């Protein structure tokens, strides 16, 4: 057979270059050497030629390229999130090039026009990169945070009603079981001690916001505040304990290997999770896989319960349950009924499968729990260090909470923009310590941004914390906590692109209003009842360097009962 093939090829190639001669030339050794040279060239190109000599971005100012294998990533991974980038912007200006591992370039654009182009005008050209979508998908399900393009448009349209004002109004009362529980617990802990008590406030904010999001997302009473061994809360705690730059770098590396994302999301990986643990360096993977498995198992149990009762859900019932999952189930029932009424009808344009509904709710649990807990914790930290601002806030909220300890949506909304210490305290805290300090986009086409040619494939850092504290906009005290600045905004302030904590455009946070209302309800109750101060002199904040910015030390604060002062 091989002989016949060789004869045929010899005939095709003709006499000038005989097959036997070729066989001599292309001996396996030559092939091997050729392949080796090609791989070597690719490595040299990737690590040296492209970043130093060939990249169209090579002349853009930025920090030194650093080690060819890692670039600037060790500095980024080891530092507080956003701080190295902030220093580079101070040093190099509003357009910065940063080279990461294996010569991968990231651009930072600071100006509003550039951010408008990336986040709003051409958002379809600049989606979240695959590695980010895969990480978010692993942790929060394949929902709004991971889809892009038309799928995203349809999904967002389907999800918007769950975040409508009427729905938020109806949901507000769901916050108060957790808030009352939180106040009781802190009262018990602090007691009548004259000097108060040091409490790790992040841990309690995290439990309270988990209970709130479980109730608003599923209608499920997790009660993690009173039950230290709640499985869902424990799984999230484990997951969040992995939030560190080095862990994130490991997960991104696995996700970037072809098939890595599928592997981590697979049942096989869960069943063999101990194997990862045996490889010392990957010892965080079993914890991640186990936590995710438990969260999915518990969530799917809750979904099954909802679906089982779906037939009894009456969509016109004004007393109907307002949690997000009930809304999705009702929308699906309505969709199917509508389709059945039409000749040849099929269900509507975005009919959610069980799995899609699960993923959405996992997304809301993942995106809406830790962010809100961090937002509240940083606000308490900043107020603890600004006793005057804290006293002003207390003077504003105490009468409101004394009149009704469960203010409704309207009353919470009333504590509103620029009229209220509560509102400006949050704006200022979310400005300086944004719970999501940085995100990433990828150019899927070559284009000019702020006059710079950006080749297809370039990563773009969306510099949330850096823009929020940019001296060119916010002035020389940009990095300081000063809620009063919101009463007299600087002329350079841009309403959309000077404060990016919830970003902007079609991917802007869907839970923005919900989280602000929820944080107001929690903070109002806390500030009415307690005074917060640093736990010890010289205390420094310790934010984690990861996707979200939570305190790594649980944020100890000295908490004192207010009744002592009245
Ligand atoms: C203080 C609290 C919060 C902050 C600072 C925050 C911040 C953000 C940011 C910066 C993004 C954009 C991420 C990116 O594009 O890479 C985002 C997206 C998102 N957030 Fe939030 N978030 C908060 C609370 C919530 C809550 C309570 C929910 C839901 C219950 C939520 C659900 C989402 C979802 C679903 C997205 C994806 C939106 C899309 O791509 O269409 N967030 N959030």
Give your account of this protein's structure.
The chain folds into 2 domains: 1-54; 130-564, Cytochrome P450 (Cytochrome p450, Orthogonal Bundle). Residues 5-9, 315-319 and 344-350 have low confidence and may be disordered. The protein has helices at residues 2-13, 19-25, 28-54, 73-78, 83-92, 112-121, 130-140, 149-159, 165-171, 176-190, 201-218, 231-241, 245-256, 260-265, 267-271, 273-278, 285-308, 324-341, 354-384, 387-403, 409-414, 421-432, 464-468, 471-474, 512-529; strands at 95-99, 105-109, 197-200, 439-442, 447-449, 452-454, 459-462, 530-534, 556-561. With 566 residues, it is of the alpha+beta class. A hairpin with a 2-residue loop joins strand 5 and strand 6 (452-454). The chain starts with a helix and ends in a 5-residue tail after the last strand. It contains 25 helices and 9 strands. It has a 4-stranded mixed β-sheet. A 3-stranded antiparallel β-sheet has the order 3-9-8. The protein binds protoporphyrin IX containing FE (HEM). Residues 128, 144-145, 156, 363-364, 367-368, 371-372, 375, 434-436, 439, 501-503, 507, 509-511, 514-515 line the site of protoporphyrin IX containing FE.
């Amino acid at each position: 057979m091989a002989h016949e093939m060789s004869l045929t090829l010899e005939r095709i190639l003709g006499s000038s270059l005989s097959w036997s001669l070729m066989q001599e030339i292309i001996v396996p050794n030559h092939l091997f050497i050729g392949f080796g040279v090609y791989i070597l060239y690719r490595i040299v190109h990737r690590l040296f030629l492209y970043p130093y000599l060939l990249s169209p971005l090579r002349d853009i100012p930025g920090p030194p390229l650093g080690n060819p294998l890692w670039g600037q990533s060790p500095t980024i991974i080891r530092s507080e999130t956003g701080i190295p980038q902030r220093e580079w912007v101070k040093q190099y200006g509003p357009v910065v090039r940063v080279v990461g591992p294996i010569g991968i370039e990231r651009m930072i654009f600071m100006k509003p026009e550039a951010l408008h182009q990336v986040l709003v005008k051409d958002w379809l050209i600049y989606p979240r990169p695959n590695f980010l979508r895969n990480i978010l998908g692993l942790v929060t399900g394949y929902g709004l945070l991971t889809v892009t393009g038309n799928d995203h448009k349809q999904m967002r349209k389907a999800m918007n009603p769950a975040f409508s004002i009427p729905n938020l109004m109806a949901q507000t009362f769901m916050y108060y079981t957790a808030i009352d529980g939180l106040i009781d617990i802190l009262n018990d802990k602090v007691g009548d001690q004259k000097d108060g008590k040091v409490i790790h406030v992040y841990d309690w904010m995290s439990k309270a916001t988990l209970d709130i999001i479980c109730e608003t997302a599923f209608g499920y009473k997790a009660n993690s505040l009173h039950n230290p061994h709640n499985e869902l809360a424990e799984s999230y705690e484990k997951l969040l304990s992995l939030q560190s730059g080095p862990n994130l770098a490991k997960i991104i590396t696995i996700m970037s290997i072809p098939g890595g994302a599928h592997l981590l999301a697979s049942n096989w990986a869960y069943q063999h999770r101990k194997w990862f643990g045996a490889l010392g360096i990957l010892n965080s993977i079993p914890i991640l896989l186990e936590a995710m498995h438990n969260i999915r198992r518990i969530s799917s149990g809750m979904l099954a319960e909802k679906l089982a009762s779906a037939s009894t859900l009456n969509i016109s019932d004004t007393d109907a349950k307002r949690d997000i999952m009930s809304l999705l189930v009702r929308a699906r029932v309505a969709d199917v009924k509508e389709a059945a009424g039409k000749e040849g009808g099929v269900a509507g344009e975005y009919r959610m499968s069980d799995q899609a509904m699960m993923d959405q709710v996992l997304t809301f649990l993942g995106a809406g729990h830790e962010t809100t807990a961090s937002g509240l914790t940083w606000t308490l930290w900043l107020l603890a260090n600004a006793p005057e601002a804290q006293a002003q806030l207390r003077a504003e909220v105490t009468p409101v909470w004394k009149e009704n300890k469960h203010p409704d949506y309207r009353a919470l909304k009333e504590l509103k923009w620029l009229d209220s210490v509560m509102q400006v305290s949050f704006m200022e805290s979310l400005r300086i310590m944004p719970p999501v300090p940085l995100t990433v986009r990828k150019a899927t086409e070559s284009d000019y941004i702020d006059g710079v040619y950006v080749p297809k494939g370039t990563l773009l850092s969306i510099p949330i914390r850096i823009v929020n504290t940019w001296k060119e906009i916010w002035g020389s005290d940009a990095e300081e906590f000063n809620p009063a600045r919101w009463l007299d905004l600087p002329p350079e302030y841009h309403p959309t692109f000077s404060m990016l904590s919830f970003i902007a455009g079609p991917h802007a946070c869907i839970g923005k209003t919900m989280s602000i209302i929820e944080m107001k309800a929690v903070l109002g109750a806390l500030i009415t009842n307690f005074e917060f101060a640093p736990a010890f002199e010289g205390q420094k904040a310790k934010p984690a360097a990861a996707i979200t910015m939570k305190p790594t030390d649980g944020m100890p604060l000295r908490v004192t009962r207010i009744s002592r002062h009245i």
